[in-house]
Amino acid sequence: MIGLFETQRAMRQMRKAAMQRGVVGIVDLGTSKVTCLILRFDGAPAMEADGVGAMAGQAQFRVIGAATTRARGMRHGEIEVMQEAERAVRTVVQTAQKMAQVRIDHAIVSFSGASPRSYGLTGEIDLGGREVSEGDVAAVLAACDTPDIGHGRTVLHAQPVNFALDYRSGLSDPRGQVGNALTTDMHLVSVDQAVVQNIMHCMRRSDLELAGLASSAYAAGVSAMVEDEQKIGAACIDLGAGTTGLSIFLRGHMIYADTVRIGGVHVTQDISKGLGIPVAVAERIKTLHGGLMATGRDDRDMIQLTAETGDWEHDRREISRSELIGIMRPRVEEILEAVRDRLDAAGFDDLPSQKIVLTGGGSQVPGLASLAARILGQQVRLGRPLRVQGLPQAATGPAFSSAVGLALFAAHPQDECWDFDLAEHGYPARSLRRAVKWFRENW
């Protein structure tokens, strides 16, 4: 844990160096595509009131380079073949650099795999009636009881999400205030360590210094949700190709993250197996004719199937759109039911609001919002990434929510535990169910 904090601190320093240079790269490692955005920062970060440390601040930026390519060597959001993944990263970075006419040395990376787990932690220190200082904030974060995350796992995010001074909860920055007891609630996300190490190694092989790591579920939520939804409580479902990311936000902070290892690729594979056609043809049919809610007209809407097997009758078949919907719907229902189980385990019903935002490439399937509302039983809307200056029109769709959210994360990072000089940590065990206990009791 402490060794990881040192690694994260080193990445933060690299991010500061890139910010001073004025150019930083954004790489979103997905299962089906790899996206690279090159950001140019104009001026120094301006401090705002919603942070507690040196990293809290809003920097103005614009996108000067953007590129995307088909992912290679990826499975379930994790690197499966290092050489193929490196080639995809090099390709997309070089294309973005040509567009921006500048070379990048530092990159911030998001990924969707590694089986994230969430923990809610609480720490408290005695102030003795004096003013809260920067050292007191570090001390109360160090006082949080770090859970036993298990062998072979590491910490990806450790964010303070709430401060309370003498039981006055909901403070975003307690510094300068006087009190007797300072309490904090921290959200910690652990992931598989081997996945993180492979990503770091891939970036080094691609001649890039890693300046930060983030969960795709977190980045998609930052991008697809409006400010009010992040404050009153909402969940973001990022329907990707190999995984479906889930993040819950409350009062502007992520308080829960998880991943379902099923995505749009599995829907494509179902179509390929069910119709006996190549995967590429199945993907094209899903994109052009796919849907989830059948109507009476779909029985008469015929789709041409083409193949190259040499059998004329097999290569020149027709199916109705209702047959295609009958293949796609069960897999999407399975994904949404798995998301519902995770929302129930996280205590989502206890939030003041139960809004759900669907984003990601898989959210573009017609009829998804209606089906999600029926299964999840909540207010559901389709989310697109926020508009940022210089973003190409082709990169404004839901499939780029994680990349745009990562750019916002780079410009306005939330403070992490390793941004402060911490003392030694304790390691008593905590149950996963306590990941959201603090906001039910205190918020």
UniProtKB/TrEMBL annotation:
It is found in: Cell membrane. The keyword NADP does not apply. GO terms for biological process: FtsZ-dependent cytokinesis. Pfam families: FtsA (PF14450), SHS2_FTSA (PF02491). It is a peripheral membrane protein. Residues 24-224 form the SHS2 domain. Gene3D superfamilies: 3.30.420.40. InterPro entries: ATPase_NBD, Cell_div_FtsA, FtsA/MreB, SHS2_FtsA. GO terms for cellular component: cell division site; cytoplasmic side of plasma membrane. The keyword Cell cycle applies. Its main location: membrane. Belongs to the FtsA/MreB family. Cell division protein that is involved in the assembly of the Z ring. May serve as a membrane anchor for the Z ring. Self-interacts. Interacts with FtsZ. This is Cell division protein FtsA. It comes from Meridianimarinicoccus roseus. The gene is ftsA.
